[in-house]
Amino acid sequence: MEGEASVNKLHTQIEIKPQGQEPPPPYSSVVDNSEMDIQPEGKLPFFKSRYRQRASDTWLISLLVILHLVAFITTTLFNYFSTGSVFFQPLSENPLLGPSASTLDKVGALRRAFLVQNHLNWRFFVCPWLHAGIIHFAINISCMIFIGIHLERDYGPLRIGVIYLLSAFFGSLVCSLFVRNNPVVTSSGALFGLLGTMLSGLIRNWKVYSSKGAALAALITVLATNFLLGLLPYIDNFANIGAFISGLLLGFVLLLTPQIRQMSKNKAGLFECGVKHSKSTIKLKQKLALDRPILRSISLILFVILLSGCLVALFLGIDINHYCGWCRFIDCIPYKRWSCNDGPNTCEIMKNNSEMTLTCLYNGNTRVFPFTNISQARINDLCAMIC
Length: 387
Prior knowledge:
- It is found in: Membrane.
- Helix content is 53%, strand content 6%.
- The protein contains 15 helices and 7 strands.
- The strands form 3 sheets. A 3-stranded antiparallel β-sheet has the order 5-6-7, covered by helices on one side. A two-stranded antiparallel sheet has the order 1-4.
- A hairpin with a 5-residue loop joins strand 6 and strand 7 (366-369).
- The termini are far apart.
């Protein structure tokens, strides 16, 4: 009996600690990813570049970029077939390295004559997709991606899409009240609408975001850069101002508290220095909900009033330039390398076998061009350049 008990005891020990099995290390090298994610409570950074995001979170901005790219390529091809030689006009004609004025007219730019005399209202829906040149396109799209991606991730594509389209249309309406006889595009208006939305999101959720100074600095930088760009020909700054106001008001109406996503313990957002944690995000949401009905109602009423006023002024054919002589300097600053003149340009034309000489009757400038077989629209472009 004693021998049998000793055999059973030995067998039990062998089963519990079999030979060849190494003891587990004191700390496992495999870490469960689910334990790495925590739900941050309290404040979160506005720019969460390192947050775990799904690719589908930015489908709206990706689609808008593709549409703008298609419109820009189409404009470039129109310019090539109109001039027969170049995709972009020289800087002396277009300081933004883009198409000619006649090409912009063909693809849908806004002019006073198109709206008042011809009533081509379809241009309100085409003009927000046009760019004045490759410089304008590069800066505008880069800023739109930078701002739009963060807004879409925080507030969702539906709300940002509605704000984007309404701001673009409202900017074109404001442009129609100030536009003169030079062609202008309003694609920057949608970007300014997103900037207004970003500002409203910061104001509305001021206690939710951390590093607000960095976010405001980025907003002001993008705003100032694109406003200065609007002082060049073919870009309308009044559309930018109108779209910014629209985005600000619509942001107060449509934006709720931003979606707070999971973040790794060892990772931080781009502007997450000094993140403060309060008691609970839920309490912050409940506190922010107290002012939503009043704020949203006032913002919605103001937007409807402004939109209705612009529509009425458009139908009445009101030109605010008749009442504001200095307003034109907000849209275009005269300089020796380009012209902001919107008056009728008349040139004396002299042709021989291989050259064409244009003399501006307004200032006496003369230019000789090594070609003669061009359209009347192209002659008007060259006449406007020397006048």
